[in-house]
Amino acid sequence: MSGSQYTARKSVADIVASGEAGEHKLTKSLGAFSITALGVGAIIGAGIFVLTGSAAARYAGPGVMLSFVLAGLACAFVGLCYAELSALIPVSGSSYTYSYATLGELTAWIIGWDLVLEYAMGSATVAVGWSGYLVSLLGQFGVHLPPELVNAPGLVTLADGSTVQALFNVPAAAIVLLITMMLVLGTKESARLNNLMVVIKLVVVLAFIGFGIGMVNLDNWVPFVPENTGTFGEFGVSGVLRASSVVFFAFIGFDAVSTAAQEARNPQRDMPLGILGSLLVCTLLYVAVAAVLTGLVPYQKLGVPDPIAVGVEAIGKPWLSLLIKFGALAGLTTVILVLLYGQSRIFFTIARDGLLPPVFSRVHKSTGTPHLSLIIVGILVSLAAGLMPIHLLGEMVSIGTLFAFILVCGAVLYLRRAESEVFRPFRVPGVPIIPVVGIALCLLLMAGLPMDTWIRLFVWLAIGLVIYFGYGRHHSTLGKRMRAAGKTK
């Protein structure tokens, strides 16, 4: 077989047209507010409730506020590229679709397979965090779940120093299955639930800021950037940079908004508004929470799993602690919802192109959702959430996401050259500078990840190549058309 199929691209016009194909047509039910809410729902979760404290305690001190600004700026460069591509190519599939239009089928498959690390493993990671908050909340009411059933398999050390052999994280798996059922029932209904949950957690976050801001001790902000310990990344300017690379992952999820393009009522207007609007809202909230938290509590005391709860204790309102934990559960729930939604839409698009079995692209006649794709994804993610520890899941999410971001920035550069005549409802300003800076920032963050994470990425991509050469290339819709036209063998 010649290599032409591997580098064959789908034109922008063909991709947009394929999104409107009969039985594969998704219901257009999302407006700008719902799309922005999807973005806020995906971003505000584990980051604002966990990473703020650990980044301050370990790397930046009160300077973590600057870290969030830098991380938000980096995401803005990538977000602008997503905004242009999602308006130009308003179909499901995220960076998989954009890669198909630029670098060809094989690269598109690789990035599509890589996105499983961001969306599926990301939702599993957050589900494990959701389980932890649920256990903590129930504990306040005197309900104590068996530790064997709320942790991944392995030895778990209890508060009294004893150990037990954990079997399966039941709450983590259960919340994934429950949200999967909701998504199967319909996008519009799921979006309504998401909107409600986003409002709840925003109220909780704003309550923390509102009650805490008047009790901030300015002495806790001095020094604003603690002196470096002599080790790169431990305080000082390098610590602010290191913390920025850590809290960058608190923004993971804004790109999930691009998977909703095919279900947006007016994608050319709503997609850029949704992506950039959700980034702006979340960056402002992150900085405000970081400011209040480090003002309430000395940063050295924030290296705990629930730093916001530590801040609430300093406020001295016990009822607010319960509210915060309820808000954390709501926040993490919406993250799981958006990531499961995104993963099913990516598989939907890949299967429509023939690179995965057609079961992933079937749309339910009543609900208008890719129900079978959702069910399969939901079952696999629930197993990962129940069986894998959170640190392994989190590392894979990080490197997979950054890899996808690089290709999105590259796609903007390529399409500006290859299809310059195509009308762009939204254009990234300052091309090529902004996409190039986006690529550079992502590469910098990837370089800081440990080697074992890189090894896992290569193993995962190798598995994906086996699937492509064993199934995808033979069933590719584009490949079949090329063979029929005699362009390849």
From TrEMBL:
The chain crosses the membrane at residues 30-51, 63-85, 166-186, 198-218, 238-261, 273-299, 319-342, 372-390, 396-415, 427-447, 453-471. Pfam families: AA_permease_2. It is found in: Membrane. It is a multi-pass membrane protein. Keywords: Membrane, Transmembrane, Transmembrane helix, Transport. InterPro entries: AA/rel_permease1. Its main location: membrane. It comes from the Bacteria. This is Amino acid permease. It comes from Variovorax dokdonensis. The lineage of its organism: Bacteria, Pseudomonadati, Pseudomonadota, Betaproteobacteria, Burkholderiales.
